[in-house]
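[step 3/7] inverse_fold.run input=structure_tokens len=290
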């Protein structure tokens, strides 16, 4: 199963990469990671492997892209789980700053989505609707906004509403970048069910090294991370991370260690693409994203 998922990933990359050579603008992201938890006081040891790839290219007013992700989770003596998901999207520029996007996402459930993407110099917004292709489908309305207050400070907000469950969730956070310093903080999730606070920061250490630390606090659990990054070149990095999670309900804790490689080149189009790339950037450095 693992070899099947890896072969699918390599076939996906080989199919899409030649098309980027003829595009006016393109984006390529490849990721490999391995995570291991000793189980801590919970006693549940597990290991997870992930491979992912995303490619997007733009030709005049048309944007087309796709991604594939494969995850294998192993719980010794209990079970092994495999998850494979594929996403395809296409966009068309209605005006210079407004784009219409359609997306299809296949995982355990199939989803379709339509998004209206506005991108300006300092302001961006994405209005979208997503539909789960099941009789009991979970439809979602969403609005994402980004605003660059100064050259160093950018504020983001996100609001989503699940129509079937009648549940709304909001996110608000800010990112400050000045020279080698990076700071982040905000409400990671605010809903009727939970409130999560996330914050963190980091700095370039000179040369090719950087260090980041983050924390996520909520009623069910607290989560702390420490990451070290090494830049192999302008487009690829190695990541080493240690994560501690503490459960309030069971008074248990566990440590998770990860090693990852990321290759990323080019720029995703539109506000939605920029937000997805930004969340990926946070995941790599802080272990979580808004």
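[step 3/7] decode complete -> sequence:
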């Amino acid at each position: 199963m693992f070899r099947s998922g890896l072969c699918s990933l390599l076939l996906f990359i080989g199919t899409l990469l030649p098309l980027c050579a003829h595009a006016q603008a393109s984006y390529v992201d490849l990721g490999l990671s391995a995570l291991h938890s000793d189980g801590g006081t919970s006693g549940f040891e597990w290991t997870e492997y992930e491979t992912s790839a995303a490619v997007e290219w733009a030709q005049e007013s048309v944007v087309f892209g796709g991604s594939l992700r494969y995850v294998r989770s192993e719980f010794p003596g209990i079970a092994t789980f495999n998850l494979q998901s594929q996403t395809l999207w296409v966009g068309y520029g209605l005006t210079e700053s407004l784009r219409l996007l359609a997306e299809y996402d296949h995982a355990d459930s199939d989803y379709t989505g339509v998004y209206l993407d506005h991108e300006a110099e300092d302001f961006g917004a994405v209005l979208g609707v997503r539909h789960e292709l099941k009789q009991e489908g979970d439809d979602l309305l969403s609005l994402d906004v980004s605003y660059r207050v100064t050259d160093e400070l950018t504020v983001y907000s996100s609001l989503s509403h699940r129509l079937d469950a009648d549940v709304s969730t909001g996110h608000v956070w800010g990112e400050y970048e000045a020279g080698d310093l990076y700071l982040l903080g905000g409400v990671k999730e605010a809903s009727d069910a939970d409130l999560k606070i996330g914050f963190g920061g980091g700095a370039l250490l000179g040369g090719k090294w950087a260090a980041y630390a983050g924390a996520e606090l909520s009623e069910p659990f607290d989560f702390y991370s420490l990451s070290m990054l090494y830049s192999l070149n302008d487009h690829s990095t190695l990541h080493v991370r240690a994560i501690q999670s503490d459960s309030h309900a069971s008074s248990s804790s566990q440590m998770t260690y990860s090693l990852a490689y990321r290759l990323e080149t080019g720029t995703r189009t539109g506000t939605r693409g920029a937000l997805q790339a930004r969340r990926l950037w946070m995941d790599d450095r802080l272990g979580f994203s808004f």
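[step 4/7] annotate
The chain has two helices and 16 strands.
The CA atoms of residues 231 and 237 lie 4 Å apart.
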